[in-house]
Task: structure prediction
Amino acid sequence: MTILLSLQGVTKRFGGLQALTNVTFDLPEGQILGLIGPNGAGKTTLFNAINGVYPPEEGRIIFRDQDVTRARPYHHARLGMARTHQIVQPLNELTVRENVMVGACFGHENQNLGNATVIADEVLAFVGLTSRADQLAGSLNVAQKKRLEMARALAARPYLLLLDEVLAGLNPSEIDNMIQTVLKIRERGITIIMIEHVMKAVMNVSDRIIVLDYGQQIAEGSPETIAKDEKVIEAYLGDPKLAEQLLEEE
Amino acid sequence: MKLWHRYSGILLPILAVAALTLWPVITGKPSNRESAFTILKAVALASSLNILLGYTGYVSFGHIVFYGFGGYVGIFLLTEKDWSLWTAILAGGVASGILAFLLGSAILRLRGAYFALATIGVNEAMRAFINNFELFGGPTGITLNFSVYKTYGGAAQALQTSFYIGAGLALLALLTSYFVRTSKFGLGLLAVRENEDAAEVMGVVTPNAKTWAYVLSAIIPGMIGVLFFFKNGNVEPHDAFPLHASIELLVMVMLGGQGTVLGPILGAFAYQGMRGYLVTSDFFKDIQLSVSGVLLLMIVLFIPAGAIGWLRHRIPLFRRVLA
Result:
């Protein structure tokens, strides 16, 4: 099994706040890694560290055998890492298609405009936004903007996809749609790290789960072991009954 | 019809500039030629500024610095080193491009108001520097020897030639604008304009993209500067770096529609037309700039996308026809 991404002792501080402490894990190719934890646990900060938005103070990040610890985000993108944002970041005054073309043009495949148009239309069909292609991105609703985030990231044809709460703010049927989309992405052989609050989804989809609390990895393992872990129940689920309930839902 | 749809984005601007060039040729009046030259110059400057302001989203309040600096370099080479007008114009463009490259690497890290303030500072610093730079004649500037015009068939012919060069530069500016707008490089710039952080995450190498946009937006102003001061017969710091001209350029771009190819051209036509009326009217001639100020305010408040942007928003057909 090839290791696609490797974090070694990643530590991030904001002033006096210790946002991430010694986060260490290896991510093999093709795996879906779920990242969970209470609000403020440092999940999004970890994404920002991984893709270069906030480089960590200590530790190393190796992506596709390259040390990317201090590299800028565009360097990560060019190496084949793509992400979605928890707070959607559409390019409002560009059309939906143009938004997706940016992903294809400037990702690791470095496509020209012609190919990017073809890829954009393909990806828009995949996420179900074809009918919106010529609309300005700013005019989409939240669920559509989330799909657009996903489409932009996919258009880059990344090796590693970072999904930051793509289910948050969606209604139950939209959630089911999105879960299907994530599973389809996995079938394409793309490695995924996903931050998710919707437990049902994260438990169903992930091969492995890491739990963060106050910037520390407090547990790691398969969805079943995580749901039974005492520390996780205490820190995150809070209520042991809730944990049981979640497992019963499986 | 299909061809028209495909190329209307570039044909409309070309037609506008061609019509403007032909107007004095057909009427044969030198005064029309001078009015047309002023508009062509504005078209070239506004279209250049649009690459930075409209496509990249960086507001430059001191863009006239490239016009002044390029003009100075070209006129210096023309008078002191006996360069021909053509090579001097090229040199002026190159000089402004290099200046933009060096400046851009430093100040394009700043965003929003900080960048805008820095560009004003750069313009004022350049003016102060040239004012004290003896090689460029200090405060009195450089005056062309009248005999220079003989090389170009006498003063009258030189004016005529300058007009055609001006039309050529305006055309070059709008072609540049169009090709940037429709290129992959341009798509990267638009992404930077919409959301620089997201653009970076998607792989746009933002420092390079911004710097090259800045360089591209500076070259033609440098060339226009040489041409204008050649035509003018002299160059001095006061004429080369007028801050109000920078602001007038902003008004033109905003009025016509930032981020579109046709917008700045339309803005240049409309603004220069209005200005021509105001400076000759008894009431407005002294407060002509306050009118631009009010105009800018109205645009920002009511039609921030400018005329072309407004049309594109309202009428889907225009989205295909107007680039």
About this structure: Chain B has a mean pLDDT of 89. The interface with chain A takes residues 183-184, 187-188, 190-191, 193-195, 197-206, 259 of chain B (CB under 8 Å).
